[in-house]
Specification:
five-stranded parallel sheet; about 40% helix; seven-stranded mixed sheet; about 425 residues
């Protein structure tokens, strides 16, 4: 069959139009897929994993509707609808490595955001790097992630745990809390060991004559602490430090309270706000604790924080966000801005892992908990402000309120670039600025 030239031109134009329509449809259907990993079962689910997922769902919905405040108000990520895949972090590091590979290879996610456990972070970070895929660690605390390794594709959008324990020590000193003797109870894995080392080293700077008595290291998930409580009661110290968290911290509080431990020592908790709603009046008054950032009742006043609390509470039966959803929020806010920055530079296309990494590296953004700055590890590790407070149960509102709050600027409690946390504390915090 032969076509005259005008008809051939019309056919060619029609075919071209069809191809353009197909391309537009494909682009319209394209999404930005995020794997979100946190504890959905086990002892860390109630106070960490489930609230983090709830926070992620609130933000993904707001992003997709274009309902977040500026500069987060563009629909989805650069116009791409966000699709989230939620994965349970329970099961150990080996399982998490398998799950990470599945997210990248089978689910075809564009980014993974997650991990509470320090052991899990230490396991998955090298794998993401090996695969050259983009990974944001949103929570885990060990400084070793970036102090022991150099990554191109791995980031942590929250401060590591050194900040928590340096701030605790500074708070005790500023309040003239007696600390001639110290007892310790921390979990026997990376988080617990690092927290203990940072706290004792920092206390050594402010209380050089202090002595350490009990140094207890129960297993993660132990749940029963009768032996440890007996040991702490046998030789009570002025200060008892713990970095237990989640179900383990709840169990310690519930088991030690009736035995009178907290009447004989000043308890300090590096990460304790997340158990307050569950414990309620069973949380003793006067416990000194941090929230791993200026979160919850200790968050700075801002329009963004007001919005965040409002939308989170509306979606979660009036519950207010605490540590875990705050950290999930700052990760997703940072990811959104980085991805949109990369898309603005590449003609609006979905960014590659390399483009995402280049956009996030060294960046800064506002979060409900304050300014996040990717200032350490060549722009891969965040620093942020934090706060420490004391607990008091308020019978009228039937909740634990935090009072005598002290805020610590990021430069006061985070090591500067180019040094390890251990060396910085041992040298007496050189370069620390703006300390209250």
């Amino acid at each position: 069959m032969h076509f005259h030239p005008p008809f051939r031109s019309l056919l060619s134009a029609a075919a071209g139009a069809a191809l353009l329509l197909c391309g537009a449809a494909a682009q319209a259907q394209e999404s930005f897929k995020i794997g979100v990993v946190t504890f959905l079962s086990g002892q860390a689910a109630e106070s960490f994993g489930i609230p983090a997922v709830n926070g992620a769902k609130v933000l993904v919905d707001a992003f997709n509707r274009g309902a977040a405040p500026a500069p987060y108000d563009k629909k989805g990520i650069g116009g791409l609808k966000i699709e989230a895949v939620y994965v349970d972090e329970a099961g150990g590091a080996t399982k998490q490595v398998q799950e990470l590979r599945t997210l990248y290879d089978r689910e075809k996610v564009d980014a993974v955001v997650g991990y509470v456990g320090s052991g899990d972070c230490l396991a998955v970070a090298p794998v993401a790097e090996e695969l050259k895929r983009f990974l944001i660690l949103h929570d885990c605390g060990t400084p070793r992630i970036f102090e022991d390794n150099k990554f191109s594709y791995v980031f942590r959008t929250a401060s590591h745990a050194t900040m928590d324990n340096v701030a605790l020590a500074r708070y005790l000193k500023a309040r003239n809390v007696k600390a001639g003797s110290i007892n310790l109870i921390n979990q026997d894995y990376a988080w617990g060991h690092d927290a203990k080392a940072d706290f004792t080293a920092a206390m050594g700077q402010f209380y050089p004559a202090a002595t350490v008595g009990q140094d207890l290291l129960p297993k993660f998930g132990a749940g029963q602490y009768g032996t440890e409580i007996s040991a702490l009661l046998s030789k009570p110290a002025d200060v008892t430090h713990t970095s237990l968290w989640g179900g383990d911290l709840q169990a310690l509080m519930l088991q030690a309270g009736p035995r009178g431990l907290f009447k004989r020592t000043q308890l300090v908790i590096s990460a304790g706000d997340h158990v307050l709603p569950v414990l309620g009046q069973r949380m003793p008054d006067g416990v000194i604790l941090g929230a791993r950032g200026a979160y919850g009742q200790m968050a700075p006043k801002s329009a963004l924080n007001d919005w965040w609390n409002e939308v989170y509470a509306k979606a979660n039966n009036g519950q207010q966000p605490l540590h875990s959803p705050y950290r999930m929020a700052q990760a997703l806010l940072g990811l959104k801005l980085a991805a949109e920055k990369a898309m603005a530079a590449n003609g609006g296309k979905k960014p590659s892992p390399e483009q995402l990494a280049a956009a996030l590296r060294g960046s800064e953004w506002d979060s409900p908990g304050g300014r996040i700055r990717m200032a350490l590890a060549d722009g891969h590790q965040a620093i942020q402000d934090t706060a420490i407070a004391r607990t008091r149960y308020d019978a009228a509102s039937k909740k634990v309120v935090l009072e005598d709050i002290a805020h610590f600027p990021a430069e006061c409690v985070n090591p500067p670039a180019g040094t390890t946390a251990e060396a910085w504390i041992k040298a007496g915090f050189p370069g620390a600025k703006n300390c209250p």
